[in-house]
Amino acid sequence: MVDAVETNANTMSETPSGFKVIWRELRHDKVAMISLVIAATLLIGITVWGSLLNQDKVTEASLLDRFLAPGQDGHILGADPSGRDVWNYLMLGGRNSILIGVSVTLITEFIGLIVGTICGYFGGILDNVVMRIVDFFMIIPTTLVIILLVKITTHYNAVTLVLIISAFGWMGTTRLMRSLIFSQASRDYIAASKTSGTSNFTIMWRELIPNISSMIITDLTLGIAGNIGLEVGLSYLGFGLPPDTPSLGTMIAYANDPDIITAYPWVWLPASLLIMVLALSISFFGNAIRRAADARQRT
């Protein structure tokens, strides 16, 4: 009997934690690790480099440098139609797009996690009311609503854009977190905690949320890629950042000119390649985390 207890204790002590299981799965996925390195390098490098630049100097027009080819007069990637250095503009625009995407993701994840956890744990009338509100807003074409709000908002800036996008971005996260919490709340360990007198707050934030941490990380990772793409798309259409604020979308918008798209590809191609590589690397890594989280559940 003692040997059996010792064996069970040793087995429990040797059982790897959730993050160890996920890391073990990711280590053997070469595509995921390469994607992680690429995404981290781009996100950190562009953010730091862009923060060191002077926006007024980068956005200053120079008619004498219009459409200079890459390598001429110190322009690594050439110059755009206004004579601005494409490399510096790319770094500054990339930083703005990344910061907006990350900011929106953090805000929407925080709101969605709190609202979804409360609704999934308590249920009842509160859950029904909140979910009906969420369902109503999710059927609305949010992109068109965001464009409308941007048009009617005077003197808007990057902070205003983040708040507008975040106001509609938390709905999907709320539904996901609510379903995860709802499935966890009916398990035996939650019933045992309630029986022992543990407060609802402690159960939610110390027991439920840690058990869905892998899905939170997955949703965060994929959300960053999606929100960066949303900002780039809005700026491409002319409803994102103000015209005087650099963005990857405004650089890609140069491709609307038939002459530029064929004769001066260095004006729009670097931004297109950057957003493509960044979105793909984040998505590949996010999907790898999701697969690793499924492996953790199986373990």
Say how many strands there are. Answer: 0
Number of helices in the DSSP assignment = 14
CATH architecture group name: Orthogonal Bundle
Number of domains as seen in the coordinates: 1
Q: What would you give as the CATH superfamily?
A: MetI-like
β-strand percent reads under 5%
Judged by helices, strands and strand pairing, the structural class is mainly alpha
What distance lies between the first and last C-alpha atoms, to the nearest angstrom?
A: 26 Å
**Might you state the CATH topology name?**
MetI-like fold
The CATH class label is: Mainly Alpha
Q: Any idea what the shape is?
A: elongated
Major β-sheet, in short?
none
Give an account of the 3D structure.
The protein is an all-alpha fold. It has a single domain (about 40-299), classed as MetI-like fold, CATH 1.10.3720. About 75% of the residues lie in helices and about 0% in strands. It has helices at about 1-15, 20-25, 30-50, 55-60, 85-120, 125-140, 140-150, 160-185, 190-195, 200-210, 215-235, 250, 260-265, 270-299. Helix 5 packs antiparallel against helix 6, helix 7 (about 140-150) runs antiparallel to helix 8 (about 160-185) and helix 11 runs antiparallel to helix 14 (about 270-299). The longest helix has about 35 residues, at about 85-120. The chain is elongated and about 75 Å long. It is a multi-pass membrane protein.
